[in-house]
Amino acid sequence: MKKTPNNSAKKPNELTKKQAAVLQFIENYQLKNGGSPTLKEMRIKFKVSSDNSILKHLKALEHKGHIQRSDTPRGIKMLDSIRNKLDMANELIKIPLMGEVAAGPTSTEEENVVGYYAIDSSLIKHAKDTFLLRIRGDSMKDIGIYEGDLVIADRKLEPKHKDIVVALVDGENTVKRYISKGGVVYLKPENKNYQPIFPRAELYFQGVVTGLIRTF
């Protein structure tokens, strides 16, 4: 009698339900934390008291080619699927450098693109509205913004009280802290040797500073 093939039999590299659950937990953990879970964390997750029960599943996953391990507490190497997702999440975006802006006495600057920098997308909220400016002067040094630094600014953000802003005040560009209190609006330097700037005629916000890049 001819035997009928048993289609329900598992293929050699097919995962059991428990192995698939362990692999899914590793994937989720790596994506959230940028690293692998420890044996203890996996024991807690799957409510088992012995490392051996977890190691059994890890050895099976390694044998079937789903993970690679080393002898460290977080020894599961980053999965290719997670590495690809993280690379996509942290892709680089070209942001224009718009020249220098005064962080000392204000000075008129033409807003021309002088170059581009590749910035991690995780640092950017609105790519099309983001630009870089190089700081000149020391009026913001008390909060760690120094001459030569590049500040990341976003045109789309609405300035709020105490934000660091790129502003055009009475025709001159500057980077200062925006103060709006009791109906009074002015720009505050972060250096005791400089006086606040009170607009005489006009104040336009060109962007809110969201980050800083420094090279040595």
Can you summarize this structure?
The chain has four helices and eight strands.
Question: How would you write the strand order of the largest sheet?
Answer: 2-1-3-4-8-5-6-7
Helix residue percentage: 10-25%
User: What characterizes the major β-sheet?
Assistant: 8 strands, mixed
CATH superfamily of the largest domain: Umud Fragment, subunit A
Structural class: alpha+beta
What's the CATH topology label of the largest domain? Umud Fragment, subunit A
Mean pLDDT figure: 85
- Poorly predicted runs are 106-111
How big a fraction of the residues is strand?
25-35%
The tally of structural domains comes to 2
Please compute the radius of gyration using only Cα atoms: 28 Å
- Number of helical segments with 4 or more residues: 4
Number of DSSP strands? 8
How far from one another are the termini?
81 Å
Which series of helices and strands comes N to C?
A: HHHHEEEEEEEE
Protein described:
It is built from 4 helices and 8 strands. The chain has 2 domains: 17-87, Arc Repressor Mutant, subunit A; 92-213, Umud Fragment, subunit A (Ribbon). The chain is 22% helix and 28% strand. With 216 residues, it is an alpha+beta fold. Strand 6 and strand 7 form a beta hairpin. The chain starts with 16 loop residues before the first helix and ends with a strand. An 8-stranded mixed β-sheet has the order 2-1-3-4-8-5-6-7, with no helix packed on it. Residues 106-111 have low confidence and may be disordered. The chain has helices spanning 17-33, 39-46, 51-63, 80-89; strands at 92-102, 115-120, 130-136, 150-154, 164-169, 172-181, 184-188, 203-213.
